[in-house]
Amino acid sequence: MALWGSRWRKSLEEVVEDFTYSLYFDKRLWKVDLLGTLAHVVMLNKIGIISQEELAVLKDEIKNLYLEISNNPDLIRDSEDIHTFVEESLTKRIGDIGKKIHTGRSRNDQVILDLRLYLREETCDIAELLINLRKVLLELSEKFISTPMPGYTHLQQAQPVTLSHYFLAYDAMFSRDLQRLEDIYKRVDVLPLGSGALAGSTIPLDREYTAELLNFSKISDNSMDAVSDRDFVLEFLFFSALTYNHLSRLAEEIILWATKEFSFVKLPEEYSTGSSMMPQKRNPDVAELTRGKCGKLIGNLVNMFTIMKGLPLSYNRDLQEDKPSLFSSIDELKIALRVWIGFLPKIEFDTERMYKLSSEDFLFATDIAEYLVLKGVPFREAHKIVGEVVRFCEENNKKFRELSLEEWRGFSELFDRDIFDLLNPESSLNLKKTYGSPNPVINKDVIKKREEELRNIIDRWHKLKSSLPDLMRLLDKV
Ligand code: ARG
């Protein structure tokens, strides 16, 4: 029986029930629905709608239902949605008292309360995973601080960098993702309950008190916006699509690096698969699936935007469709982060081959042009001179190192014997002066700063997580 059934003479067509039913996906909100219900009835007691005795009965039954579902999640069935299930289950157990639960509340403000409670918990878990991934990346960047490898633009060998610099580049992306998540949290952390269906209530609900019980930093100040706002869902979907995009780019590096042509990495057996036909194959399926699944997270964001773009105020049933997208992005992101936290430290890097390829002469062409600049040649002129050296080498099938000093001087009088000291990746890296470059000395400093930043982030998320309300603790407190 639906919660709104009294005015209806006919029951819903079965196909309509199937069409509107959401319990199969919103049942994961059961814990937060019970938690929100507890806070609501405690507040109703404070303002005199529910007596002390009634509250005691409600608390007992909320606790019992919580324990029973914890033991047997299959108990959740037969209702239209999770809110109906919780209210019906309580009412079945305690009769008339149960009928007071929904005072001053609508499923419209209830569902969005649930989603906010749920997302606050999930963001804490995701932050922890991202922090662990960053720890792995920072450890790897320390380990390979002086390991040269070719850096690419246009996927063409460009200049020597270090393997550390690669990891620090990805760490920079995940650092921004964590900043974004912290920012989103602020907008999730708002209590919508008390907004009713769309216009609040004539009952003097104590919203500040409910917010205090559930540890929300703010309460919403417009009831129509409160029941129809899904901006924080969109923001979260954008955050997860972008974070996943970063994983997907990292995956692409690994896929390339694992090819015979690059041969930069050997994949761990636990994280790769064979071919059913070709016995020699070791395939980077984990990385490929990361790249492939990324499409789903981008799709979820587009899906949500499409749901929202034409919605008039306030609540519309379309909004029920926010949850499959949100849950899918949460689940996909969490499992992918777990996979990469385990995968990265197990990859074997062929640092000798990376070194060899980063010693290719032409990778030092820019350093040579800058050598001339430091001797007073305008850069455009220096670029032209080195371009001519490159052409000469190509035409005569020679390498930079094979040219004699006289040959160098034929291009510019300013070339000296020290030009030969430039033709190795160590010099190229160690001579880099700019902050943010792959110079190992500079990167050591960057790593130190990132580690410090990470410690602060860990502290902040730890505080947020420990401030989250817990049903059992709240039962003891009130
Ligand atoms: N299952 C609904 C949702 O997810 C709950 C709110 C239903 N409200 C309503 N007026 N029918 O959005």
UniProtKB/TrEMBL annotation:
Residues 362-430 form the Argininosuccinate lyase C-terminal domain. The keyword Amino-acid biosynthesis applies. GO terms for molecular function: argininosuccinate lyase activity. Belongs to the lyase 1 family. Argininosuccinate lyase subfamily. Signal peptide: none annotated. Pathway: Amino-acid biosynthesis; L-arginine biosynthesis; L-arginine from L-ornithine and carbamoyl phosphate: step 3/3. InterPro entries: Arg_succ_lyase_C, Argininosuccinate_lyase, Fumarase/histidase_N, Fumarate_lyase_CS, Fumarate_lyase_fam, Fumarate_lyase_N, L-Aspartase-like. It catalyses: 2-(N(omega)-L-arginino)succinate = fumarate + L-arginine. This is Argininosuccinate lyase.
